[in-house]
Design goal:
Glutaredoxin; Arc Repressor Mutant, subunit A; 753 residues; DEP domain-containing protein; WH_DNA-bd_sf; DEP_dom; 4-stranded mixed β-sheet; alpha+beta
């Protein structure tokens, strides 16, 4: 219990009405009195803030007494206020610890400390605050101050601690009790604006808006929050200063460095940016270099590499991507052979002319002579983005009937075999619609229905039959539930007459090969996916992929089918990285390889179904118990009859540890697969440590060990695709009869960009 008659006390007032008050280096939070060191310290408020916080309100509520809000209309606690009378004297009222009555600033009674109200408050506070907390009694003491001399004498008296301990009656002026000044050693109270009348003109201030207190169940550690904000602010300020200083240093280096090399210093990283030289401008070239090319042309690749090494800007016109430009090539050169190089409108020649001029050392001189002026209008123009070639496709003969059926058939959700099938119609309804439209017999209408099913305009909802009259349910291809996952479906099915699958596959392969030649590194291990997504070649590829909707894959030979699905897999991976993004975790990878699909030949194909269902003859993927195709799936007819283990080194899944991305031709598929396998093992797919008798293999072999056989068989098989050094080391390990350890390398799932 804090005694009311203590000789030494430190009493502090809080200006601005804050709940926390600092006294002698300490502060009181939420109205709790902290008893430490030399005396008791009490934090008080000025006109409107809480004395005991939530403890006081709770104790008042528990004892059935009205709260301070109910007594004084929202003013709680106690404070200090000073006013000047008409004669210039100060009048003050001060509340002390002890007994007495509390008065409001207009003289009204707040709390009678001798009553049961204060006792209820103090008792509840004592019961609640049982850890080094003191119960507080409030006493009022009033002193009348006449002038400044009395104020000084009062301060001296307070310094000598000669206060009369007996309660006294406050003097009043005009019937109003006034407040005394606080102790001279304590900070002077400053009344916040908006709480009192102005002492100069007596104008009324509007009350300040106060935020409501948090509930007692909401713990807030104000010192921790303040410290956190200060730390973050200091860190942020330091980062800004550091960044500004680095920019200044960069500007200084730029001014002193004629090579235009910029160094950017980041935390733990040093980045050096060097601007590319514009050789065209350095040589004084004003014209344009352009050349005609084809995909997978070695001479064209040599010309492209030469210009890149020289740093010369050029425009490439690939006639496999832009077939209508072949006519222009023939008109300008009299031949369709490539490459053909043009300096402005003048024909320079092919690779032979370029090599002869380069070997003679006259290339730069000849280049300046032919390109010293701006490019005229009659020079070969650069390809323009967004313009397609005129359509040469013919409309399907059945499209007229299909359009009528789409309008007339009652497409509804139906219940069959205890399942609800969506967006379907019955076979009998379609037969009746065909008879009504063509005015033909029922047998003829059934034949037309079967033809529509063969061309993949319609499918049975369960894939049980092609088409039959009766109560069998069918749906149009665009209403299939897998359509939203097909990224080559753009609003409607391709209603043109389906092209042969071999021709469609060749065109897609040529476009994707042109993309690799223009937007990948020389070794094809890094792909610039952003540049690919913004290119005209990729836009044309996406449009051409719609021709896969209703192609007849069964017409392909074994080699054509192998090349078709290998190329389709690699093209879909590039499309998936651009449209879906890079898989970062196990769940994302499963979704990446299963949910990204193409509509091919009337059926959906994901990356997993192509690799494990078609190329691996419907074998389970790693860590899965389910085969890609179930019994009765029409896609089983497309599966290859025999698994070729070389396919694993021709498929690129868009990661750094996967084989290099490439595309194959049906004529040389076997030789190209062997070359891809040899390149993979010679690069980093296999290492031999003779001292440890350990062979390090790619993890692809572990995942698909069913395709490669036992460990001893795998090592013998790999020898055929190794260079002489690795083959000799592995042969030595196999021939001495000792044990060989096989360790599988860690697979890098980061994207190959």
């Amino acid at each position: 219990m804090v005694e009311s008659n203590e000789k030494q006390r430190n009493l502090g007032s809080s200006a601005g009405g804050g709940r926390d008050m600092g006294i002698d280096g300490h502060r009181i939070e939420n109205g709790v009195l902290d008893k430490q060191n030399d005396g008791n310290r009490l934090g008080n408020c000025v006109s409107g803030d809480e004395l005991f916080g939530e403890n006081e309100r709770k104790s008042e509520k528990d004892n059935g007494n009205p709260s301070a809000d109910e007594i004084s209309g929202g003013s709680r606690g106690f404070g200090v206020e000073n006013e000047r009378n008409a004669d210039g004297s100060y009048i003050g009222t001060e509340f002390f610890i002890g007994g007495g009555d509390l008065k409001s600033e207009d003289g009204g009674e707040l709390i009678d400390s001798s009553s049961d109200k204060v006792e209820g408050i103090t008792a509840a506070a004592a019961e609640r605050n049982d850890q080094d907390f003191s119960v507080i009694e409030i006493e009022k003491r009033e002193i009348y101050v006449q002038d400044s001399e009395n104020i000084s004498s009062l301060e001296k008296q307070d310094e000598n601690h000669d206060f009369d301990e007996s309660p006294s009656v406050n003097p009043t002026t005009n019937g109003e009790e006034q407040f005394l000044l606080p102790h001279s050693l304590l900070p002077k109270p400053e009344v916040p604006k908006g709480l009192l009348k102005s002492p100069s003109n007596g104008e009324e201030f509007h009350p300040m808006e106060r935020s409501q207190s948090l509930s007692e169940n909401f713990p807030v550690d104000m010192p921790s929050i303040g410290k956190y904000i200060r730390d973050r602010s200091n860190s942020f300020s330091a980062a800004i200063v550091k960044r500004i200083s680095s920019l200044k240093e960069t500007d200084d280096r730029k001014s002193n460095n004629p090579s235009n090399v910029t160094e950017i210093h980041l935390s733990g990283l040093k980045v050096i940016v060097q601007l590319k030289k514009d050789e065209n401008r350095d040589l004084g070239l004003k014209g344009r270099i352009s050349f005609f090319s084809r995909s997978n042309c070695r001479d064209c690749s040599a010309v492209r590499l030469f210009f890149r090494e020289k740093g010369l800007k050029f425009v490439e016109i690939n006639i496999d991507v832009f077939p209508l430009r072949e006519k222009e090539l023939i008109e300008r050169t009299g031949s369709s052979s490539v490459p053909q190089i043009f300096f402005n409108e003048k024909l320079f020649g092919g690779l032979v002319a370029l090599n002869s001029l380069r070997n003679s050392g006259q290339f730069e001189k000849r280049l300046k002579e032919m390109m010293g002026r701006r490019c005229p209008d009659d020079a070969p123009c650069a390809p323009v983005y967004g313009f397609d070639d005129p359509d040469e496709e013919s409309t399907d003969a059945m499209i007229g009937i299909v359009r009528i059926l789409r309008q007339r058939l009652p497409i509804q959700d139906r219940l069959t075999k205890m399942k609800i099938v969506t967006n379907c119609f019955s076979g009998s309804e379609m037969v009746e619609a065909i008879i009504q439209h063509l005015d033909c017999g029922r047998k003829k209408a059934i034949e037309i229905g079967k033809e529509l099913a063969r061309k993949h305009f319609i499918h049975h909802v369960f894939g049980e039959n092609d088409f039959e009259d009766g109560n069998h349910f069918y749906r149009f291809l665009e209403h299939e539930p897998f359509i939203p996952k097909c990224f080559n479906f753009r609003g409607s099915t391709n209603d043109f007459e389906p092209k042969p699958a071999a021709i469609v596959g060749q065109r897609l392969t040529k476009i994707m090969a042109a993309i690799l030649e223009s937007y990948t590194s020389e070794d094809r291990r890094h792909v610039n996916y952003i540049a690919v997504s913004n290119s005209e070649e990729f836009r044309r590829y996406v449009n051409l992929a719609q021709d896969l909707h209703r192609v007849n894959i069964l017409a392909l030979s074994a080699n054509e089918k192998l090349a078709f699905f290998l190329n389709l897999y690699n093209a879909m991976v590039i499309h998936a990285v651009i449209r879906v993004g890079c898989p970062e975790g196990v769940i994302d990878r499963r979704s990446f390889f299963s949910d990204f699909q193409y509509l091919v030949g009337g059926h959906p194909y994901s990356l997993n179904t192509i690799k494990n269902g078609i190329l691996r003859n419907n074998r389970r993927q790693p860590y899965s118990w389910i085969k890609p195709f179930g019994t009765g799936d029409k896609r089983l007819e497309m599966a290859l009859p025999k698994v070729n283990p070389l396919i694993h080194f021709g498929l690129c899944n868009g990661t750094r540890s996967s084989p290099t991305v490439r595309f194959f031709s049906a004529q040389g598929i076997e030789a190209e697969l062997r070359g891809a396998t040899r390149e993979f093992f010679q690069r980093d797919g296999m290492e031999v440590n003779l001292e440890k008798r350990t062979v390090y293999l790619t993890r692809i072999i572990k995942w698909f060990d069913a395709d490669f056989g036992q460990d001893s068989e795998i090592l013998k098989w790999i020898i055929n695709y190794l260079d002489s050094t690795k083959a000799g080391l592995l042969t030595h390990l196999l021939s001495d009869g000792g044990p060989i350890n096989i360790v599988y390398q860690k697979f890098d799932w980061s994207v190959n960009r």
